[in-house]
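Exercise 7b. Backbone tokens:
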């Protein structure tokens, strides 16, 4: 099952690696050691880097490695990125970058007065790449962006009381989120239930959501707290000044 999930979502790290991260996410959700939440950009201020991470996690990892202090840290982060994406992720992102690069050159070349010619071998390779992008890569990038956009905003991070599910997540089911919810099976509305009843699969959470939402609201779970965009996922209601924090 995990192998099939990896084949269906090759742009994600190995599910055997993610399993440990996800178990820890439920134990220490929203705390400094919650790596899974950080991977989906929770706790980061909104800006170009967070948006890049939502769209292209591999490129963000490379940028993060380049910006790391000292060459040892750069090499360490680069090695970790390669390890987490071997082998399927490297093929996945390789197809994506080849697709973008090839079509960008063939589009801009004539506009710049250059004659762009492709060999028969290149055309055969691009036929495979184009098919892979249309069938697997592009749909996964759209899905991943929608899922990370919803997930990274509905999880609280940074000032959450340890192992307190009432502070770990909120319910995000506002009408304007539906374009994103459609690509992640209404994740924003139902994922909070998962933090209280872990064992139920996504379709059961969808079925029990009306009753669960009523109980959660009575218990104090927040609904549609869009102030987290300014607070970088902090549970507290005061704005965060990242410059003053260094």
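Sequence design result:
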């Amino acid at each position: 099952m995990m192998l099939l999930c990896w084949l269906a979502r090759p742009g994600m790290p190995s599910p055997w690696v993610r399993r440990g991260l996800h178990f820890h996410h439920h134990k220490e959700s929203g705390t400094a050691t919650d790596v899974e939440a950080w991977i989906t950009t929770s706790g980061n201020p909104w800006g170009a880097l967070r948006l890049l991470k939502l769209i292209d996690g591999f490129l963000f990892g490379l940028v993060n490695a380049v910006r790391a202090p000292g060459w040892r840290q750069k090499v360490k982060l680069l090695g970790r990125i390669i390890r987490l994406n071997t082998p399927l992720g490297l093929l996945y992102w390789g197809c994506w970058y080849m697709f973008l690069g090839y079509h960008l050159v063939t589009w801009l070349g004539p506009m710049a007065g250059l004659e762009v010619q492709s060999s028969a071998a290149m055309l055969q390779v691009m036929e495979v790449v184009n098919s892979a992008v249309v069938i697997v890569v592009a749909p996964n990038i759209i899905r991943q962006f929608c899922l990370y956009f919803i997930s990274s905003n509905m999880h609280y991070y940074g000032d959450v009381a340890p192992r307190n599910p009432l502070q770990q997540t909120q319910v995000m089911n506002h009408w304007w989120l539906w374009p994103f919810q459609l690509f992640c099976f209404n994740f924003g509305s139902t994922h909070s239930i998962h933090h209280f009843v872990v064992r139920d699969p996504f379709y059961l959470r969808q079925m029990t959501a009306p009753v669960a939402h009523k109980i959660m609201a009575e218990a104090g779970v927040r609904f549609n707290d869009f102030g987290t965009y300014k607070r970088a996922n902090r549970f507290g209601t005061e704005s965060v000044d990242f410059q003053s924090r260094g």
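Instructor comment: Residues 242-246 have pLDDT under 50 and may be disordered. The chain has 14 helices and no strands.
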